[in-house]
Amino acid sequence: MAGHAGQGTGQGSGHGGGQGARARPGNRRVAQWTREYTRLPGIPDEFIAPDGTPRPVWTRFFDAFAALTPGDIERRFGSADRHLREAGVTYRAPGDTADRLWPLSHLPLLIDEADWQQLSAGIVQRAQLLELVLSDLYGEGRLVAEGAIPAAAIAGSTEYLRAVCGVKPPGGRYLNLYAADVGRGPDGRWWVLGDRTQAPSGAGYALENRLVLSRAFAALYKSMNVERVAPFFEAFRDALRASADRDEPRIGLLTPGQFSETYFEHATLARYLGFLLVEGDDLAVSGDRIHIRTVAGLKRLDVLLRRVDSNFLDPLELNATSQLGVPGLIDVLRKNGVVVANMPGSGVMEARALLGFLPSLSRRFFGEELKMPHIATWWCGQKAAREEVLSRLDRVAIEGAYGRGVPGFPGHGPVLASELPESERERLKNAINDRGIDYVGQELVRLSTTPVWDNGQITPRPFVLRVFAAATPRGWTIMPGGFCRIAEQLDARAVSMGDGARAADVWVVSDKAVSTATLLPAVDSVRIKRIAGVVPSRAADNLFWLGRYLERAEATLRLIRALGMQRDHGKGASTALHSVERIQRLLVTWGAASQASRTQAAKVAAEALQAEDKFGSALSLVRSAQRTATSLRERLSPDAWQVITEMAERLAQEVEDDESVVSAAELTLQELASFAGLAQENMNRAAGWRFLEMGRRAERAINTTRFARQFAYDEAGNEDLDILLTLVDCQITYRSRYLVGPLLAPVRDLVVLDPYNPRSVAFQVTALNDHIAGLPTLKEGGLIERPQRLAVALQATLTTAEATSLDTKTLFALEQDLLNLADAIGSHYFPHGPNASRPEKLTGLA
Fold first, then answer.
1. PANTHER family under this entry (predicted)?
2. What percent of the chain clears pLDDT 90, i.e. is strictly above it?
3. 788 in the same domain as 708
């Protein structure tokens, strides 16, 4: 068995950091910060060395940190927090229905270069070992046949997939990305707390942590000579490219979707690495290949970086209830048709049941001991180990052998027999005796600690560091940093982001200036492109509906503003009351307000602005847009995301009176205009932008037609027509053309038929025609497709129509035609479900 972090906890000096810091003359601020800092008895600490003095790397950091004024420090902390909030860096704890703001510690975890080299060597050896074990388990099977690993220790894991036995991994590797959770043992060395081989998470958050803290403390970051993490991601991306069987492969990141706990990270990695973010429904199998459903038809996918657990990857051969995977994926792997990273089934190496066998496997494969030990672990599937665990039950932690939690006991963490009632303790003993293969005993461990900033003081907190290794053609590359989680409880034995923990950036510090060399290829070796790439149908669908939701919100807000203006201007005039009634009726019909409130204009306006239970309220529509935008994080700029977030926050704020309702509506309208400007100026003019624009144009045309039908009806008077001009923002245009007040025919022409008016129905239909014509044709033979056929017909109708011939009936028919066009766009370009088909042929698709 490996050595364990729990035995011989050691009796360090226990000196606080304050003593070491006070010994440095002239550094009163550092002494003030650290005067209460005391290393916990017997627990290794990152700030205080075993001899009781501060480690040099932390002394260097705090000396530089103390050069900042207290006000400057607080401003920089605030800047980091503001960036996280504005960029929408979030996560979702297990059981949560809403995202939480990412809790980033304001101090990094510091590791000096020499210490990091030792840690890296242990990680590389461990990654190599696990790759060799996986290759044997799914290949020749000699380890089990020769008794190096008991068969039951493997077969008991749900992550051992018989469906991939004998399948050679396309690309040649089972592990493309490996991670280990580590902490310091009592001897001061790094110890492995757990292996992550399934689909290691946290690399994206590590990247975001670095971006935030290096910007907030740019000068400090540079002066500390912190190793860059960008080359690691470049090497990982290049390795995945090299694993494919063509020069310019298409790579996708498979995510469970926006309700995943770490969806933000998936989007961050996809955007940073230039991968397509895809869900199971975005993919389809044909022949021996995986394809992405795109707005241009099916496109071949070469590499799939998965963040979906193995068992859910293929409902045909694995978990039949899964809706996250791709039917037929395993068969494509057998035919060498796609590289999946990590290979399905690799999660078996996370089983605690295997930990006790790794030291002997290291000697078998390498002829050497593990360079980095792990917690002493006894798998209770073996008689001797089971008796050892039962004999010292009060001095070990009981864990599940194959997954989170202990079978038969609540919670996701270890069970300590010493803390159980006698009846539960006996039940645990009986369970271990009856089915020992499901349990392991592990030496009791208390996590080592690192400094955190707490109200102007430096205090120790337990932490776990996740270190990442990427397989490349040149060997394993280690990220110089990692994903650090810090617990709030001093006696924590595990750290979960769902338990109120915080994250920290990890700085690997060098004594010399760090290299600025890049792993980017030479400019002349890259083929120039001007197209952003394919757009998955799901992404196009979300962009289309993002545009529609925002345009609906704008229409509702314009009605709220008009309602407030009419109430202020009318005050008893029968025409004004009539117009107010029409606005209220429209808001009720749209689902923005309740029928019961219809007689109270102020209540209708308030409900339409922010009633959470009304699907047509501005708040509900903006939140729908926000949920849709969440699925597009890799495609939206931080500024665009910030605008949507600020709109949702503003509309959720309590309004005090009628005036504040109108004010909130006006401010939100300004933000909607900002988003439209960002889309026009910052989005690449590829298919994604077209679908966002098509959603906006289709919805604006529908809403404008409804406005016209409601306020430019056959008997409409000046008051109604004036409201219509206000709703569609055409007051100035009308008055610049006509020297008389609003008249029915000119208003109808301007609002519905004028192709030069950017708010008219005709303008929207012309724009829709242009966008549809710019999209790929999905049918062969040159026949005009249904969306284009409907759009062309609508444009012809509007081009040849005359204002005097328009009436309420004609406007209603126009509205129905526009709705049909929007539906036709959806059904043609956004098929849903695993059985959704495309009209195009698969042969010759790139």
1. BLR2978 PROTEIN, BLR5612 PROTEIN
2. 67
3. yes
For residue 278, what are the β-bridge partners? 254
On whether residue 522 sits in a domain, the answer given is no
Whether 30 is in a domain gets the answer: no
Give ∠ CA 410-412-414 in degrees, rounded to 5: 90
Residues 704 and 759 in one domain: yes
Is beta strand 483-486 parallel, antiparallel or unpaired with respect to 90-91?
unpaired
Phi, psi of 213 (to 5 degrees): -75, -35
- Domain that residue 571 falls in: 539-626+642-667
**Same domain flag for 708 and 647:** no
Q: For residue 839, which of 280, 295, 329 has the smallest C-alpha distance? A: 295
**In this structure, how many other beta carbons lie within 10 angstroms of the beta carbon of residue 742?**
23
User: What gap in Å lies between CA 440 and CA 435, rounded to an integer?
Assistant: 11
pLDDT of residue 831: 64
| Adjacent-strand bridge partners of 361 | none
Arithmetic mean of pLDDT, 70-83? 92
Report the number of distinct structural domains present in the chain.
3
| Residues 21, 374: Cα–Cα separation, whole Å | 33
- Say which residue, 130 or 41, is predicted with more confidence: 130
Residue 697 pLDDT: 96
CA atoms within 13 A on the CB side of 59: 16
**Is the pLDDT at 6 greater than 60, yes or no?**
no
Q: How far apart are CA 458 and CA 329, in angstroms?
A: 51
What per-residue confidence (pLDDT) applies to 7? 32
Asked which of 392, 425, 443 is the last residue of a domain, the reply is 443
First to last CA, the chain: 52
545 and 615 fall within a common domain = yes
Those residues whose C-beta lies under 8 Å from the C-beta of residue 650, and which sit 6 or more positions away, are 664, 667, 668, 671
Integer Cα distance of 241 and 171 in angstroms = 10
pLDDT at 638 over 80: yes
Question: pLDDT of 429-453, one tens digit each?
Answer: 999 999 999 999 999 888 899 999 9
d(CA 418, CA 439): 17
Residues 193 and 178: beta-carbon distance below 8 Å: no
Q: What share of the chain is helix, strand, coil (3-state, %, to 5)?
A: 50, 15, 40
User: How many Å separate Cα 208 from the centre of its chain?
Assistant: 11
Measured distance CA(308)–CA(266) in Å, rounded: 11
Per-residue tokens: 531 = 């197209």
712 and 810 co-located in one domain: yes
Residue 571 lies in a domain: yes
Residues 613 and 551 in one domain: yes
The one-letter code for the residue type at 220 is: L
Q: Maximum Cα–Cα distance for the chain, whole Å?
A: 100
Tell me the per-residue pLDDT of 137-168, one tens digit each, with 9 for 90 and over: 999 999 999 999 999 999 999 999 999 999 99
Residue where a domain terminates, one of 427, 443, 459: 443
pLDDT, average across residues 457-476: 95
Q: Residue 434 sits in a domain of what CATH number?
A: 3.30.1490
Are both 696 and 817 inside the same structural domain?
Answer: yes
Cβ-based neighbour number of residue 107 at 10 Å:
24
**Residue 616 has what pLDDT?**
94
CA dist 4 and 625 (Å) reads 51
Burial 594-614 (b: 16+ CB within 10 A, else e): beebeeebebbbbbbbbbeeb
Would you say residue 758 lies in a domain?
yes
CA-CA distances (angstroms) from residue 788 to 76, 686, 700, 752? 53, 18, 18, 20
Three-state DSSP class for residue 638: helix
* Omega before residue 342 within 30° of 0, cis: yes
Distance, in Å, from the CA atom of 504 to the CA atom of 225, rounded to the nearest integer, reads 18
Shared-domain flag, residues 571 and 661 = yes
Cα gap 564→92, rounded to integer Å: 39
Question: What gap in Å lies between CA 384 and CA 645, rounded to an integer?
Answer: 58
The tens digit of pLDDT for each residue in 728-781 reads 999 999 999 998 889 999 999 999 999 999 999 999 999 999 999 988 776 656
